[in-house]
Amino acid sequence: MSDSEDQTSSPVEKNESDNKSIPTTNCLGVGSENEEKHSAIVASHYNQIEDRGLVARKQSNIIFMRNFNNWIKSVVIEKYTTLVKQRTPLGSPFRVLDMCCGKGGDLNKWANANVTHLICTDIAQVSLEQCESRFNGMYPGDRDIPRRPKVEFFVADATLQQLRTKYRDPSTKLHLVSCQFAFHYSFESFKQADCMLKNAAECLEEGFYFIGTMPDANEIMKRQRMAMSDSFGNDIYNIKFLCDTDNPPLFGAKYNFQLDEVVDCPEFLVHFPTFEKLALKHGLRLVERKRFEDVFDELNTFKQGLLERMQALETYPPYQGRKGFEGQKKDPEQYAHVEEYGKKMSSEQHFRVGTLSRKEWEAATLYLFFAFQKMKTSYDSNGLPVYS
Description:
The protein is an alpha/beta fold. Helix content is about 35%, strand content about 20%. The chain is globular.
């Protein structure tokens, strides 16, 4: 993959307007030995991550980056839940699939959006159990029943299994599908990526949305070439390529990603033009793609209050003795950009700003956000879907 994604052709590219040129696959629930082995590695990794609680998380080296990423998710989820409500009559059902839900980090977001039917699925059994426990803790008593959404929890590999067959009602129509920090695992193979997009699209109502976040392959390759090494990063993240970096494949471009105490497992580059073409095959039209820093530049002024409430930026210089963050040591080099800003101000003027350390910003800016909309569906004389 080149730094400029337009320079690399897709294996499915014959005619950009002709989706019939793209091969067809089915989610049969059975993968190859290698696919199932990798899925087991990912599931095992996330099953072993402990839910350490809020106090322990505040001592993390990447607490502000994690809060920043959560803020990104919050503002884009709020944007698209608002768009859903604008397209539906007041009081209508609001059905969401949280695909690869993990431990339930977005449950409060769905509650705030007044979702009426929530489907949570993940490959990791332990993570899903923690998600269900967290959900039940949000609605502990009988008086919470009126605001409690219908909910479904089930373990599944969305890259190999058809999710719809596991719904209580396989005819369920969805208004929003969300896949946060997980879609890139499907790019191990064409079959898996195609299956995951089928799961995202096939129950989505026309006009509604599939949204998600994932690493930006272009940015990763750019940094690899700048480093002139198959391994690069800083104190909190590291990427080590396990494939040919001179000519990475469009599927199966494998690297190991390590992020402090949160992630340490194999992942795959997502060639975005291929992703976009596969999405079109399933009737999903790209409506938005933004890197995290662009989302921040666009929305931080309007969502400043949420930034502060979520502690998505670190106050610098820090307040002395701030409760919960005393154990974090500050490396002046990590805040040189803030000091430079301070020098531009009057010498008598005291300043404090919200920021991220340089190493946290480097890690946060590896990611992008995407949104697709389900197109109108009709059928040709052979019974095949035609999207417009």
